[in-house]
Design a protein that fits this description.
4-stranded antiparallel β-sheet, 4 helices, 18 strands, about 10% helix, globular
């Protein structure tokens, strides 16, 4: 029996995938989540954006943000699974910097244009993989993902589907400040178009400064491991961590914006 909440009181339609029917929007009732933000060189990210038509967000001269999102989905409309998302902060229509970020944050998510371009999105079940790839074009793949969030400690390990380890993230962070979460926006490639997707969020995150949380890339040859290395994230430490055990969300159907010039090189 799914929890009752006005947040989930929305019309739902069924969509067929190769792994079965999926309700849209997908409703996520009970989740632990950790969002980590890394600052890296702009030149590490720009080659990954070739052909996308997306503008990379600039935090300061020659610097930008990359996000790593960890999820433990305990109760959802598409089953129980874990997920890890790697994305770059982008805008489809104009370049943004810190000065233009504040007005964007004040906008409703339907009017906001900056979001995360999803580079890799491993999951632990075939059903979640099929839905993500076939409905949104998310670059998902199925593998083992371990996730632990306890007090001020986080650990996550993403296995290579063939052999070895793609990455490991772990460590402790400072006690933080609790603030409401905000809706998320993702950009992906589906059927030759840029797709914008709004993820409505109902959660309170604790915002932490890093203490000694570190991302380590394994010896894997998987495209996600290569992307992490290319982005300069091996042995990187996040500048900000957001964590919660009470994450709820609605993953809506995406909106095609325009055609891509060619498919990005970051996918398998």
């Amino acid at each position: 029996m799914f929890p009752q909440s006005s947040f989930f009181d929305v019309p739902v339609q069924m969509r067929q995938t190769s792994a079965g029917e999926v309700p849209l929007p997908i409703l996520y009732y009970d989740t632990s989540a950790v969002l980590l933000f890394f600052e890296t060189d702009l030149n590490h990210v720009l080659p990954k954006m070739e052909g996308t038509g997306l503008n990379v967000f600039s935090t300061r001269p020659n610097k930008t943000l990359v996000g790593l999102a960890l999820f433990e989905y305990r109760q959802t409309g598409v089953g129980v699974y874990n997920e890890v998302g790697l994305g770059a902060l982008v805008s489809p229509d104009q370049s943004h910097n810190l000065l233009s970020l504040a007005p964007q944050l004040l906008k409703d998510s339907t009017k906001r244009d900056f979001g995360f371009f999803i580079m890799n999105l491993p999951v632990t079940t075939p059903e979640a993989n099929a839905a993500g790839r076939e409905i949104w074009g998310y670059p998902k793949f199925v593998t083992d993902i371990t996730f632990l969030l306890e007090r001020n400690t986080v650990e996550c390990r993403v296995a290579d589907p063939v052999h070895g380890e793609i990455c490991y993230l772990g460590g402790k962070f400072w006690p933080g400040v609790s603030l409401p979460g905000m809706d998320m926006i993702t950009y992906s490639h589906h059927d030759g178009s840029i797709v914008k997707t709004i993820v409505n969020v109902n959660a309170s995150f604790t915002h932490h400064l890093n203490r000694n949380v570190t991302l380590r890339v394994g010896h894997s040859h998987h495209i996600m491991a290569q992307n992490l290395r290319d982005l300069g994230l091996d042995q990187a430490k996040p500048v900000l961590i957001q964590a919660t055990h009470t994450f709820q969300s609605r993953l809506n159907e995406g909106i095609p914006l325009r055609k891509w010039s060619h498919k990005p090189v970051i996918f398998e």
